Amino acid sequence: MTKSSSIKTWVRRLLNPEALRYLAADDPEGDRSFAEGAAQVMDKQLDRRQALKAIAGAGAAGAALVQAACAPLGGRSEEAQHRWEEFFKKNYRLMTETERAETVTRLTKLAADDRGGAPHIQTTPAQPGVLFGYAFNISKCKGYQDCVKACIHENNLDRGENMQYIRIFEIENGQQSLASANGSYYHEVPADGHYYLGTQCFHCENPPCVDVCPVGATWKEEDGIVVVDYDWCIGCRYCQAACPYFGRRFNWSAPQVPPESVNREQHYLGNRPRKKGVMEKCTFCIQRTRQGKLPACVEACPTGARVFGNLLDPNSEIRYVLANKKVFRLKEELGTEPKFWYFTD
Amino acid sequence: MSPTHLFQFFGDAFLSATRGRLAYHVWMGGLTFLMLLGAYAYSVQLQEGLIVTGMNDHISWGMYISNFTFLVGLAAAAVMLVLPTYILDDVDFGGAVLIGEGVAVAALVMCLAFVTVDLGGPHRVWHMIPKLGYFNWPRSMLTWDVLVLNGYLALNVMVPFYLLYSRYHGVKPDKRKYVPFVVLSVFWAVGIHLVTAFLYAGLPARPFWHNALLGPRFLASAFAAGPAFILMLLGVIDRFTDYGIRVVIFDKLALIITVAAQINLVMLGSELFVEFYQPTEHAESAVYLFFGLNGHDALVPWIRSAVALNLGATLCLSIHPLRRRRGILLAASTLLFLAVWIEKGMGLVVPGFVPGPLGDVVDYHPSWVEIWVTVGIWAMGFFILSGLVKVAIAIETGRMKAKGGDQEVPTESL
C-alpha cells in the first residue's frame, strides 16, 4: 500500500461512513463531491472546477482529524463533526437535493441532542401555480392579539427578548397615520373610539431587503414568500435598515424557547430554531402553508379579520376580497408591491 | 525586490517602529492598554451577542456604523494631498503626502474593524467570498463597499510602500510604475465615499438618508475633516520630531479645509431649508435630530454642538489673519474634525432610524461595551498610524536606509 492511499483509507474511515454510502447508493446522478472531497485532495487529481468542492471535503477531513485528536479528551465526536459540517455548508439556494437532505439530517440530530426530542424539518419547495397573498380586515379586528400569541408559539419565537413578528396598532378613529397609533397597548380591548390594524412582513414583490443583502441570505421564493437562510446570514442588519415596514427581527442574544413548548413541525426556511446574531421574519408560516394549511395567525384570529390564500386561484377568498372590497396597502409610493392588503367591510 | 531585501526592509521597519523616546513608548503602551480593554469588551459582546450594545430592532445601527461612515471620509481625504502632489506636480506636499496615505491606511483598517464588530456572525464572513460563498454583487451596495474599501486599502499600501522602499535603497522611484496607481486611487477615493453614501441613500425606507445630496455632502465634509486631521497630525510631527513640515504645506492644507468646510456649510443650509421650510412627514428625522420628537431628544445637544463647532471653526478658518496663526489653525481644525465626527457619525446614522418605518420613536444610548470597543478600535488606528508615520519619517529623513549604499539595488530590480 502506498503512503498516499493509506492516508486516504485512514481519512475515509474517519469520515462518516454512513454519509458516504448514502451518497453513493441513493443518488448516482447527484453531487458526490462532498464525500469525494477528501479522496480528491489525497489523489491530487483536481481540476479547477472541482477544487473548491474539494476544499469543503478537506474541511470535513480536517474536522475528522481534529475530532480524532480530541477523542481522548472525551469530546462528542459525532456532534463535533456535525457542527463542523454545518459551519461549512452552502447557501440553501445553492444546495443540491442531496446536500439539503444531509443538512436536515444533521440539524435533526443536533436538535435532538439539544432539546430532548427530534424535530421534523421539511424542505418542501414552493408548489407550482401558487402565489401567496394576505388581506387584513380593519373593520373586524378588535385587537385581541390571539394572532400574536399563536405566531410566537408556531414559529418558536424568542421568549427571552419577547420577539413578535406581528404588531397590532390601536388607532384613534379619524386618524390614519401609524405614527399617531399605539403599537404597544396593555388594556382591555376593543377600546372605545379606536380601530385596530396589524402589520407583519408584507412579502413584497419587490423586496428591498433582498436587494441589499451582501451574501444573498434572504430571497423571495417562487410562491412569493420572502425567506431567510438562518445559517447563511452574517448579521449585518442591512435588510433591517432597508425594510420600510419594520418586518424584520434580529437575534440580539441567543433565542430562548422552553423545550416543552418547541414546535417540532418545522421548515428549513421557516420556524426551525434560530441562533444568536442572525435575522428572522414572518414566513407566512411556510411550514404550514406549503402543506395547504392556513398560517397560525389566520387560524387563531377569533374575529375572522385575516384572509390568506393563493392569488393565482380565481376562486380563492383572497381573490374575492381583492375583487369586491376597497383595499389599500401601506406605503404604495415606495413601489415595493406588498402582497398584504387592508380592507374594510 | 528580492526576498532578502524585503526581509531586511521589514526588519529595519520593525526596529524603527519599536524604538523611540520614552514618550513614544508611553504613547504606544497607552494605546495597547486601550486596545486590550476594547478586546475584552468585544469578547463580552461575542459571548452575549449584540444585546450588550445599545442597539435594538428599531435602531439597528449605532456607534460602530457611525464611526465606520466617518472614517471612510477620513480615508478618502488623502486624495486632497495625493492629487496635487502626484498629478498636478505641485511638489509642495511632497513631505506630507506619505503621512496622508498613512492616515488613509489606518482609517481603512479601522473601517473594516468597525464593520466586523457590528456583525452578528463575524465567523461567517467567509460567506461573502465569491465562489466559496455568495457575493451579492452588483445588487447589494454593501458588496460594492467591500470591494472599494479593500481596493483603496491595497492602493494606499502599495504606492507608499513602493516610494518608501525606493527611498530606503536610495533609488529614484520610477514614475511609470506608480503614477497609474495614483491616478486610479484619486478616482477610487471619490468612489469609496460615494459608495458609502449610496449605502444609505439607496434606502427609500429611510427618508432621512434617501436624498441625492447625501453623497456630495459626504465628500465635502470628508474633504474638510480629513485634511483637518492630517493638519493636526502634521502639527504634532512638526512639533515633536526632527521632520520639519514647511509652512507652505500648512497654508495650502488650511485653504483646502476652509473651502471644503464652506461648501459643507452651504449644503447643510440647503438641507435644513428643505427639511424645515415646509416640514413633511419625511422631515421628522430632522426634527428629532435638531429639536427632539415626543420628548425624545438624546441627539439634540450633540447636533447643536456640532453645528456650533462647525460654524465657529469655519468662521475662524475663513478669516485670513486668524487662519495664518498656527495655534488658531490647529484649534479650528480640531473643532472641525469633532464637528464632522458628530454630524456624520451619530448625527447621520441614528436619526435615519427615528422615527421608525411604523412611527416608533426610540432613543439610542450606546452601552459601555460599545464605547469601549469603539475606543479600542480608535486606539488600534492610532497605533497603526503611529507605527507607519514613524517608519515613513525614518526613511524620509534618511535615518533608515539599506546597508551598503545605493549601488547595490539598481532601479530595474524594484
TrEMBL record, chain A:
PANTHER family: PROTEIN NRFC, PROTEIN NRFC HOMOLOG
The UniProt record lists the keyword Amino-acid biosynthesis: no
Swiss-Prot/TrEMBL keywords: 4Fe-4S, Iron, Iron-sulfur, Metal-binding
One Gene Ontology term of the molecular function aspect: 4 iron, 4 sulfur cluster binding
Gene3D superfamilies from the UniProt entry: 3.30.70.20
Signal peptide range: none
Protein name: 4Fe-4S dicluster domain-containing protein
Sequence ranges assigned to domain 4Fe-4S ferredoxin-type in this UniProt record: 224-253
Organism: Acanthopleuribacter pedis
From TrEMBL, chain B:
UniProt-listed InterPro entries: DsrP-like, NrfD-like
Keyword Iron-sulfur: no
Transmembrane segments: 22-41, 61-83, 95-117, 146-166, 178-203, 218-237, 249-269, 299-317, 329-351, 371-393
Keywords: Cell membrane, Membrane, Transmembrane, Transmembrane helix
Subcellular location: Cell membrane
One GO CC term on file: plasma membrane
Main location: membrane
Membrane topology: Multi-pass membrane protein
Top-level division of the source organism's lineage: Bacteria
The family this protein is said to belong to: Belongs to the NrfD family.
Protein name (database record): Polysulfide reductase NrfD
Organism, scientific name: Acanthopleuribacter pedis
